[in-house]
Write a structure and sequence with these properties.
The protein is of the alpha/beta class. The chain has eight helices and eleven strands. It has one domain: Rossmann fold (3-Layer(aba) Sandwich). α1 crosses α6, α3 packs parallel to α4 and α6 crosses α8.
Length: 255
Amino acid sequence: MPTALVTGASRGVGKGIATSLAAAGYTVYATGRTIENATLPGGIIRLRCDHGSVEETEALFAKIPDLDLCVNNAWGGYERMVEDGQFTWGKPYWDQPLHRWTSMVDVGVRSAFLCSAHAAKLMAPKGRGLIVNIGFWAAQKYVGNAIYGVAKAATDKLSADMAHDLRPSGVAAVSLYPGLVRTEAILEVAAQGWLSLENSESPEYLGLVIAALAKDPDLLSRSGQVLIAAALGAEYGITDIDGKTPRPLTLAEVP
């Protein structure tokens, strides 16, 4: 049975990915600060980890003896968007709170780097494996704030350069962009009429796409690339759990 690590799986995208990978036959290790309280299917191995801590992130791998797939999803960047009654998410860079850099760059990019380094050491001796970093269009255009762009651009570049180093080992690394995902937070916003879910994706959809990508016989040819989840889903013939087929966004369509 293949093994997978999904970081930041207590809720949202990570929880959906872990759920779908378990259904696809993976032994799944799921991490998060509140993973013990997550409503995950039985059989998923919960490992509490604060990915803002280097020590906790590195100690995690003493509990993972084997690995075929690593999904770096840990991310605190969408927390505390409103502070003291002010929406600080969209402020110019000089008015951004420092905690946002910590949650996006340290929790997001740094933990992806650390987990990928340890994952590579488990995968390379087997000559196969896949590392998926969750990216987004903010890497390619201004979306929300400057720190967001820095973190997502770094994720894309990290994936590309990891792929260069990994190529002789047979391990692939990609940056994967979700679309509008129906996470708990997004559903709450949509319920207030501020957002249309017409072309949205379930959190589980990303896991279905990743499972199919991992089985692709031409996986290594995609290593180092930025991949759009809905485009891959259409290519692989994947239907979301609601029976719909999400349409891939283009850069021009991203607000």
